[in-house]
Amino acid sequence: MENTVDNSLDAVANSSSQRSALSRSIVSNTFFLFLAFCLFCSLVGCASRRSIPVDEIVVGRPIPTFEGEALDGRNVLFPDEIKGQAHLLLVAYVQEAQFDVDRWVLGALQVKAPVRILELPTIESLGARLAKGFINRGMQQGIPREDWASVVTVYNQADTVASFVGGIPGNNAAALLVDASGVVRWAHREGYSPRELMEMMTVVDALPSRD
Fold this sequence. Notes:
Elements: H1 2-50, E1 66-70, E2 75-78, E3 87-92, H2 98-110, E4 116-121, H3 126-130, H4 132-142, E5 152-153, H5 158-165, E6 174-178, E7 184-188, H6 194-206
Parallel strand pairs: 3-4
Antiparallel strand pairs: 1-2, 1-5, 3-6, 6-7
């Protein structure tokens, strides 16, 4: 009788252990499937944006209406956010474009451009929208708190931004100079260039208002 009870207890323990292992396996597989799904959606999103003609003209056109999320937690509505002051908008579709974004920011600060600089990571994928909490926290860890208000990620209306800006070659960002009324006055999408920065400054100097 004692042997029977021991065997029964062993069987229950083995069954419980197997269920626990199976549960951990399911959770692990689900997690990795989710990561793979996010990666797939990101790649699809990047591919769709890269197919937009690079030579689409944006200069002279007003910024479209769209909403983004600043790293400081604010919901930011464009073009309301940029009315009344000249802005340099740096639009990036891929993480690798951050190097180009940093060069534009540094260059604009060095020449003391009288513009407000906003970085606009633009992520057009379902996976990114589902994981935006993780993405935002990751960016916060790599960006000083005082700069969080200057980084506005576009998730839900990324297609609006991408359709307006057009394709961006390589791992570059699109640099857009927008006047106080929300109209693009200068644009460059071929990567940072000191010569292009000085050309932008010439346009800035000719703007009617810097309020």
